[in-house]
Amino acid sequence: MSIRVRAQESNGVVNLRALISHPMVVPDDDDGPNFIETVEVKRNGGDVMTANWNFTISRNPFLQIEFDGASGDTVSISWTDTNGDSDSTEVEVR
Questions:
Q1: In the prediction, which pLDDT does 29 show?
Q2: What is the pTM of this model?
Q3: How far apart are the C-alpha atoms of 69 and 24, rounded to whole Å?
Q4: Is 24 left (phi over 0), alpha (psi -120 to 50) or beta?
Q5: How many CA atoms, within 13 angstroms, populate the side-chain half-sphere of residue 84?
Q6: So what's the pLDDT on residue 31?
Q7: Cα–Cα distance between 14 and 21 in angstroms, integer?
Q8: In angstroms, rounded to a whole number, what is the distance separating the alpha carbons of residues 28 and 34?
């Protein structure tokens, strides 16, 4: 599983777009549920957003948010799923 991220700044606002590869298995499936529960976005180590998701989010979810920032800032995004798996990545704002 992976995360593809792009973060671009314009007039002091950072536009973050992320595509998260994850099967997002619903509870009705034979293997049991496996979906992303928590997504966190941080800018220069400070919290920007925390999302609590459930099985209603589609497979390979796309996330787009805007927040105050500048070129050169470091943005990280991470997730944790119901099986305890997780992934994270970090990008520099362009």
A1: 67
A2: 0.92
A3: 31
A4: left
A5: 0
A6: 76
A7: 22
A8: 11
Q: What is the pLDDT of residue 48?
A: 98
| The two structure tokens encoding residue 58 | 């589609």
The pLDDT of residue 39? 98
Task: Spell out, as residue ranges, where the chain has pLDDT lower than 50.
Answer: none
The pLDDT of residue 32 is 83
Contact (CB, 8 A) for 9 and 16: no
DSSP-assigned states of every residue in 14-59: EEEEEEE----B-TTSTT--B-EEEEEEEETTEEEEEEE--TTSPS
Output the six-digit token pair for 1.
């599983």
| DSSP-based helix, strand, coil % in the chain, nearest 5 | 0, 60, 40
CATH topology assigned to domain 3-92: Immunoglobulin-like (2.60.40)
